[in-house]
Amino acid sequence: xxxxxxxxxxxxxxxxxxxxxxxxxxxxxxxxxxxxxxxxxxxxxxxxxxxxxxxxxxxxxxxxxxxxxxxxxxxxxxxxxxxxxxxxxxxxxxxxxxxxxxxxxxxxxxxxxxxxxxxxxxxxxxxxxxxxxxxxxxxxxxxxxxxxxxxxxxxxxxxxxxxxxxxxxxxxxxxxxxxxxxxxxxxxxxxxxxxxxxxxxxxxxxxxxxxxxxxxxxxxxxxxxxxxxxxxxxxxxxxxxxxxxxxxxxxxxxxxxxxxxxxxxxxxxxxxxxxxxxxxxxxxxxxxxxxxxxxxxxxxxxxxxxxxxxxx
Length: 312
Description:
By secondary structure, this protein is mainly α. It has one domain (about 5-310): Rhodopsin 7-helix transmembrane proteins (Rhopdopsin 7-helix transmembrane proteins, Up-down Bundle), CATH 1.20.1070.10. It has helices spanning about 15-45, 50-80, 85-120, 125, 130-155, 175-180, 180-215, 225-250, 260-270, 275-285, 285-295, 300-310, and strands at about 5, 85, 165. It is globular, with a radius of gyration of 21 Å. Residues about 305-310 have low confidence and may be disordered.
């Protein structure tokens, strides 16, 4: 077989259909939420600060990350076939890794943005100028592209000595590691170590930013000021914690010969839920974003279109 066989969650066709419907609902809701944030932060003139600029691109990464794995899994479940070609698998690995590393990088940049906004409010516009924000985004995209290229090049040159059966719903790198020959196993582990160092550096940057943020917040005399800071920082901290914890569990969890329920749960929590939940997490705690959504939904132009559609 030139490609790979994705086993998914079950061999039972009814359970495969249920899995496809569940993933379809998650994909539609996640795509709608991310697309809404992208639209609002692009059109609303009051949401043009760097924090919303990065949030817009985070939503774009989330939307892209969902589109890399979930539609293929839905199609395989509906067709009852888990086959995926080698080219499709390599492309899936490249884009998923690139988007995941870019998301980690942009979460680090967003934590630094919040650090500057809280600790140096008078110099915020100078430090986080539009030009510097653009260059930060370029660095984010570049880090994702390099990570995706390194991962894909390593796996593309790997020889597989075992049956090409992947016990996941997408081409998961830890599962591919189990199929590699003994000599190529250490090359892939070296790539894992390099990416782990990069992820740890991002993690340290986020932790240092939030240590300074919370030390500054607790010294604020105004309860309203503390509430405003927490409304933007806590959602970001929750997203980072969910993404990092599930990601490290998925990639550092020793892969045994037979798949476990935890392997599947970690992959869902890492690859599917964070991109789908990010819009809900940010919109629920951000008053400016909620106000922009209400304004968009209650705009006169939109109401006129609803009335015309109703009578038509």
